[in-house]
Structures are given as structure tokens and as C-alpha cells.
Write a structure and sequence with these properties.
Radius of gyration: 15 Å
Number of strands: 2
Helix content: 55-70%
Distance between the termini: 29 Å
Shape: flat
Strand order of the largest sheet: 1-2
Strand content: under 5%
Structural class: mainly alpha
Order of helices and strands: HEHEH
Number of helices: 3
């Protein structure tokens, strides 16, 4: 994230928002108002309700993100052709 300049882009454009996957947790921590990452997994000894709530929040975040990812993949495939 730092070597690719993504963090700098969020600093330069504070109105930009992004949905990211778990691999970008640091980016979400650095820019909480701009970047949304999946919720952290509850500890193993957490109540079962917390695990179910985590799964549902993760599913919803993933569903919102996947639409954009598919559009980008489709666009990239068209450009390669």
C-alpha cells in the first residue's frame, strides 16, 4: 500500500472512499473515514452470537465489494481483447 502510493492518494483526495478486503486492514485503520474493511474476527471464546453477527457483517461487506470487483475484471478483460 505504501510503495504503490495508495495511502498518498487517500491523503490527497479525502472525498474518495473504498471497500477493501482483509488484506488492506492497515489501510482501513489509517483512513477509517475513507476505507471500509471487513470486521475483525471475534476471538474463539467469544459468544456464539458474536460469531454469527461477524459472519453476517462480513457477508454484507463482501457482497457490496464484489459488484465493483466483477465490473473491474470485466473491463480489464475487454481491454486485453
Amino acid at each position: 500500500m505504501r510503495t504503490e502510493g495508495i495511502a498518498e492518494q487517500f491523503r490527497l483526495y479525502p472525498e474518495v472512499e473504498a471497500e477493501v478486503d482483509e488484506g488492506y486492514r492497515g489501510l482501513a485503520n489509517a483512513f477509517p473515514d475513507q476505507v471500509s474493511a471487513p470486521p475483525k474476527k471475534p476471538k474463539d471464546d467469544a459468544p456464539l452470537g458474536e460469531h454469527y453477527a461477524w459472519q453476517e457483517m462480513r457477508r454484507r461487506q463482501s457482497s457490496a465489494r464484489i459488484c465493483v470487483e466483477h465490473t473491474v475484471e470485466h473491463t480489464n478483460a475487454e481491454l486485453r481483447q
